[in-house]
């Protein structure tokens, strides 16, 4: 069980901008495949609190991550699980322990209310420079393909400066960040219905 504060900057890219960055910068030649499996309650209790939960499969390993808003970025609570526990989550029998369970309790979200909604697969390329990690993602979900640039930093100031400089250098429009889980759920009819009901 681990917790960390994630400081990241991101923007969705057009395919042409994605290709430009891929060819111009020293991203890894081979993409790493990872799949996020997303969960929510019927009434979107996590979304209403600016939070989200997923299980990520990478290299045949599974990690549950709860993301919550934090004044310095995003608070992430991680719990490694085995394939049997992963299948329990998919089958509607989620289990969690320690800090993850405590965080969900604090959000007044019951484990048994979390429902599996689907998955998003990302092909990720990265490189690191000056303590900054640059990430180029191609994601596939519900018949959609999209592209994204992320920059992860230790310092908000350094990260923002480097991110803005990179976008300026390659004449890329800075768009309001939309997380993968937000893009995934917005592709679901059930999410759109719920979103309209809230209005």
From TrEMBL:
CDD domains: CYTH-like_Pase_1. Residues 4-191 form the CYTH domain. It holds the Pfam family CYTH. Coiled coil: none annotated. PROSITE patterns: CYTH. This is CYTH domain-containing protein. The lineage of its organism: Bacteria, Bacillati, Bacillota, Bacilli, Bacillales.
